[in-house]
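Agenda item 2: WTA complex prediction
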Amino acid sequence: MLKITKKKIAAKSNLDNYEKAYKNYSLEEAKKEISYFPGGKLNIAYNSITRNALNENTKNKTALIWESEAGEIKEFTFSQMENLSNKVANVLKKHKVKKGDRVFIILPRIPETYYSFIGIMKTGAIAGTMFAAFQEDGIFERLKKSEAKFVITNTELAERIKKNRQKLKELKYIFLTDIGISGGEDKLSLPEEMESASASFQTVPMEPDDAATMMFTSSTSYTPISGVVMPHQAVISQHLTAKYVLDFKEDDIYWCTADPGWITGTVYSIIANWSNAVTTVIYEGRFDAGKWMKIMEKYKVSVWYTAPTAIRMLIASGVDGRKYNLDNLRHMCSVGEVLQPDSIRWIKENLKVDVCDTYWQTETGSMIVANFPGEKKKIGSIGRPVPGVIVKIIDDQGKEVPVKTEGNIAIKPDVPSLMKTVWKNKKMYDSYFKHGWYVTGDRGYMDEDGYIWFLGRKDDIIKTSGERVGPAEVESALIEHPAVIDAGVIGKPDKLRGEIIKAFVVLDQKFNPSDKLIEELQQYVKKHLAGHAYPREVEFINKIPKNKSGKIVRRILKAKDLGLPEGDISTLEDD
Ligand code: WTA
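Presented output:
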């Protein structure tokens, strides 16, 4: 007998036809998807939650389905999200939050993270998030740099602020989400405060250019970490890319596995999914292949956004996707690292869908290149520019290079979601713009059909398990250890994680290389900087290669690692 399976491809994608959509794109049309206050002002939070809570058709629709690591399930409608985020906004207002203040969330994937993020933006303050794997030094650097006024976290994570608390002069209050605690004088219980707060709030109308969010990301020039500031008008690009690339339909159940500590987890797991009024699943727990499949089956996930490392981990786990009922899954996208052909094949065989690779950065605020549902894909290509974004491959002088020629991936900087500033670091911000282009720092080429092929980073930024790590931060953490007098850190290609962090370490003469010491250094970085940023490999060497101005030349370490000729260090020019 013939087995009839549900047709998985949406009858018609929202994009309809790529060439037409790209050619006919108009910013004015795109803006019509967004709700404005008088005078052309807007607010991301209003677009993501409030307008759906005010709409008869969506106010009682489920916005968030949340499952905890232990299996507890909670659901929230758009109205409930509206009320909870209003309460957070009122709590912040009571404590005198001002437009432009930085409020950071350091929490796991729990409902508080999501409605607090919206609540912060409602007040006109800048919402920031931090990956909960960061430890005291990683957190301190970010809170200090951003001059954060409030932090929303829990008792366990707040311990990591303790050591440096006195040095954080701008930090007024730490709100704790754990019920019933009342900490020291600078700690307040968020649930207690919310209890007495009103559930109505007038969202502050913002200018399109006003700052909405701040995400810290890693770089290798000027500064190891930068607070990338995204404006409220970003929601125009975010909404549209989600509609076209994630291809949301009214009844979709959407799951994005990205942590809200990173850009994908805020833009496409809070902002653009909800501005499209889509029911969103959040699973608090860690990666677990079987559990992930069960989440997809149980909640009838229809659109899934994940990362190549997660796909490789699914493959490595030996899980058989065909054993689960994934009939509802009709569309899937990937982001953050190179998506390998065997991953695409595995997904097709196991989950019965095509993966659409998407390419963007924290700094661009939304997808800039993507593969579109229903459109031709070329395996290995990151796709074509999204409507509204002019992408070119340019040389170092800003000149467009011929097709199939390697160069810098660059965009015209008129994209609404592109960062507005790097917090208090104009030099860093300016360094991205050259000859009228925003230059991504990635290398690639374009083929004769306009498809873009990603070749790698131009700088030394590491992508490990899809998470962006700056080598300088890891080097600084290592150097703090008494045994280390110098360190150089690189990304080493890895089958599962894309790259792993490898550290080359010069030891103080009083210490001898040993496996025990390696383990100690790893633990040291885990404890002080972040659980995700420790070197999985450590090699002891005598000298770290530096150029004339004392900058580490990591490409020599990379060559050394790959067993390639290292060249003559003494003749190195300044990079
Ligand atoms: C890399 C993540 C290959 C790239 C949204 C970029 C990718 C950096 C892809 C940004 C892709 C992103 N294929 N590499 N599809 N997408 N990258 O800021 O090097 O965490 O510059 O933003 O990830 O990482 P970020």
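Discussion summary: The longest helix spans residues 78-94.
Owner for follow-up: CH.
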